[in-house]
Amino acid sequence: MQWTNDSRLLGFILVGFSDQPQLELILFGVILFLYFMTLLGNSTIILVSLLDSKLHNPMYFFLSHLSFLDLCFTSSIVPQLLVNLGSSDKSITYGGCVVQLYVSLALGSTECVLLAVMSYDRYVAVCRPLHYAFVMHPRVCSILASMAWLSGVTTTLIQSTLTLQLPFCGNRKVDHFFCEVPVLIKLACVDTTFNQAELFVASVLFLVVPLSLIMMSYGNIAQAVLKIKSAIGRRKAFRTCSSHLMVVIIFYGTIIFMYLQPAKSRSKDQGKFVSLFYTVVTPMLNPLIYTLRNKEVKAALKKFMGKTL
CA dihedral in degrees (11, 14, 15, 17; nearest 10)? Predict the structure, then answer.
């Protein structure tokens, strides 16, 4: 019992990149810049989507949710990471670790489902354009977004709670830069077969199933686009979906590598850098991808900047 309580009293030590001191300084500067760009880019997307009436449609409704998710997700991890990179103290309180675990897992799981919902929106827009206004009614969009958020909250309540019930027997060194389910399970001093099985089932439900639905949606979209005789029409349809597809590939590619690849087949540093990519880089890239490849967003930004200046 004393060993079990040690972690709660003393908290954890996030090892992170402390074995490479020179790299820590570089990472601090790079991550600080990326975090600033994430805050700026995603806040701009939310603001523009709210202020420009031309962007009051399902696509930008879901994009605003995605930007808000990315803001919260990266903010639940990066501030503590910057503190640890910038000082010799690598500790995090037990309460801080618990909050980080629950919040980051909820937001990450929500994003997995939300990207699937966004692919369905693109499927309806391209394959059933005449029924789009009816199928993607604002009430339907609100229900779909609520389902995504609810699924994320549900999975974190189950997974995080089960993980925190494990005894750590005084093990306080987390070989990662934030509190995440797989690394905390490794820290346990008892048999974790049940937790590993539960993690695998959750990974299938929140990674494989949504990704399969996304691939089905884009398979139907590809067939519909190929049937369009006009080259201009094909380009327009492709431009409508390409931004979302790029985000899906980047996000799911890194997450699947972390959660579905056997832990023994990757090094510790590999896991850390992959996690760094989907927690810091991906949230920064999302607004850039949607802005640079979307004429409507660029036009709204120019209009907004013109009014501001």
Answer: -160
* Domain 12-306 CATH class label: mainly alpha
Which of 24-33, 105-114, 139-148, 218-227 shows the lowest per-residue confidence on average (mean pLDDT)? 218-227
86 phi and psi angles, rounded to 5 deg: -90, 0
Q: How far is CA 131 from the centre of its chain?
A: 30
**Local structure of 174: helix, strand or coil:** strand
What does the block give as tokens for 19? 């074995």
Sheet containing 91-92: which strands, arranged edge to edge? 91-92, 12-14, 173-174
Q: pTM for the full model?
A: 0.87
Pairing of β 173-174 and β 91-92:
unpaired
Distance CA 274, CA 90 (A): 20
End-to-end C-alpha distance for the chain, whole angstroms: 62
Segment 77-80 long-range contacts (CB within 8 Å, at least 24 positions apart): 77/104, 77/177, 77/178, 77/279, 77/280, 78/31, 78/35, 78/279, 78/280, 80/14, 80/178
The DSSP secondary-structure symbol of 278 reads I
Tell me how many helices (H) and strands (E) the chain has: 14, 3
Listed residue (274, 267, 282) closest to 67, CA to CA: 282
- Cross-strand bridge partners of residue 174: 14
CA 52 remoteness from chain centre: 26
Query: In the predicted model, is pLDDT for residue 77 greater than 90?
Result: yes
What distance in Å separates the CA atoms of residue 211 and residue 209, rounded to the nearest whole number? 5
Q: What is the pLDDT of residue 293?
A: 62
Tokens of 36: 């600033």
Measure the CA–CA gap between 290 and 27, rounded to whole angstroms: 26
How is 27-44 classified by DSSP, letter by letter? HHHHHHHHHHHHHHHHHH
Q: Where are the domains of the chain?
A: 12-306
